[in-house]
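Researcher: Please predict.
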Amino acid sequence: PPMQPPSYGTLQYWNTRFTKTPTPFEWLQDASSLDPYLHAALCSTTTQAKPHPNLLHIGCGTSLLSHHLRTHVHSPPQIHNIDYSPVAIQLGKQREHDIYTDQHAADTPASSTMRWSAVDLLNFDAVLRVCNPNSYSVIVDKSTTDAIACSDDIPVSFPYPLTTRHPHTPLDPPPSTKTHSVNPTLLMALHLALVAKEGAQWISLSYASERFSFLDGAADGVGERVGDVFADVGLLWEVRDRWAVEDGGGESGRDGVTHRAKVSNWVYVLRRTGVPVFVRGRRG
């Protein structure tokens, strides 16, 4: 029988993977591969009023990118590393402690460490427990959207709690107990739009040449009531640039980087538009 694909959408898969292989592991390319795009994004989102923008690293896993990001910011707390797996988060926190207490001092204060949180990006309540709305200027994603795209559609109730309409507009139809299936990448993009600042940049490394095509038809899977029952996510993000970048090829597993025959991966830069996202029933 054909091999079943990995269960990327399950917490058990990731906890088991990181427990069995706690050493650093890189998806697609090494930790410095996004440097030019990160530098440009941080420069464009740094202002006199906000000289130290916050950076959200989604699906950090055991990648050394989490630690490499420290070279791009003024202070480590600007970086918020999040992952579905609490095992990965604990490994990342411990690795940061081991690296930087050895380099600096045993009494390194908490204020000089990055932020780490285990969170399900497909659950908006979970996202709001660890991320503040309108707070991140840069989002970094090294093949996390690829993994999310391998997940099953997510059952949600309409109208969805997040909306681009005024949150106190009367609902028609009223809330329903019936669930509807929503594309997981669409759901994640909506949740990220809630926590991103206007003008924020989302840098995504992917193996797919059309990874964000779902934004062009974001309303298609929701039906005629888009806007009323589920936000049109295509209004919230725009793909500004896309570049093909070659990986190095080579043997699988060597130096902890996944390598195939030399192929092109893709770097996307998305920009958060000025369309606001509200939580239904909340003011402000």
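Model: The mean pLDDT is 86.
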